[in-house]
């Protein structure tokens, strides 16, 4: 029996979604759900992608202004995985939305949603939720298997966001604390106005520090929690392969792991364990994590014949993933006694080369574009700010990348921030 045209179209959409690269997954998901729900913008909020926790498609005035605080508030308001039609503050104002969480704790938000194609709201929601859960799982899996270039850019973006958050926290905390001191001064005559302003400023301080805490939570994962998630990932393998996996846990009070290091470490361990399982005569594997304060130290040992080699294709790919984080992988084998794999992953992001005193030769317009890029603006928003076309912005970005010696927006931001920091000191 041939499937109905609608079913075939849905299967095609699901296939395209499954094959979508990380940077295109929001656009693919919006295209897949378009026959069922129309929306002005689609926003995905996922902690699996520490460098880019938001995946967005749709109206620029929404996707360029939506904040992590707004998305975190929406996710916190969802008690379970059931989707919900509601009104939420998104991009600075209250809008009708369709919101849903996934089993990976990622969030989907559709703004100004409406059922399409004459379908009922319930029918449309059923399809959207299924496509969304597929997308959420694919995001998690793609991050776990991310190419070295993605890991490098993710780390650069994470480091820059941490720096900007700390800088903004210090700046605005000082401003608000000064305001409080002035408004509480006995020289002020209008006590009621002074008290009201003091209350507002105190509330702003609380919100600011809460925002900083949430950003820090996105950037880091407690080492014990990261290891617990690894154990959960490997539990099915242990149950069905018949191979005993022994876990030696890291100190519970060890240094928290940057998010991209935690994700990469779990993916690296999973890949190494699978490579060991494929060998003959392996009956036991030991996985141990430790930390020397600056590095995550991983030791994985099997009891096989000692045949594991970095010359194998799979092992070379694992080594590339380690090197993407400026880490190191080495193997010690003893014939008939097994293989011992050691991995070292630095916990601190590598600093870009110092450009203090270097002349980049940027033109006035290129400097403006770099400043707006460092402020987090997208190409369309930069074009609107400078009153030029998006193609002109892309032209300036290409020149910027060439002159700064970088290949991505995140790297350009990080290099510019490092130069500013060097100038101040």
Structure, explained:
- The protein is α+β, with helices and mostly antiparallel strands.
- The protein has 4 domains: 5-144, Beta-Lactamase, CATH 3.30.450; 148-220; 223-346, Histidine kinase-like ATPase, C-terminal domain (Heat Shock Protein 90, 2-Layer Sandwich), CATH 3.30.565.10; 364-424, Winged helix-like DNA-binding domain superfamily/Winged helix DNA-binding domain (Arc Repressor Mutant, subunit A), CATH 1.10.10.
- It is 53% helix and 18% strand.
- The protein is built from 14 helices and 14 strands.
- It has helices at 5-19, 25-33, 60-63, 68-76, 121-144, 148-183, 191-219, 223-241, 259-277, 313-324, 364-374, 379-386, 390-404, 409-424, and strands spanning 37-38, 41-45, 54-58, 84-90, 93-101, 107-111, 114-115, 220-221, 244-248, 257-258, 284-291, 295-302, 328-334, 338-346.
- The strands form 4 sheets. It has a 5-stranded antiparallel beta sheet with strand order 3-2-6-5-4, sandwiched between helices. It has a 5-stranded mixed beta sheet with strand order 9-11-12-14-13, with helices on one face.
- The longest helix has 36 residues, at 148-183.
- The chain starts with a helix and ends with a helix.
- 32% of the residues are buried.
- Residues 1-5 and 351-358 have low confidence and may be disordered.
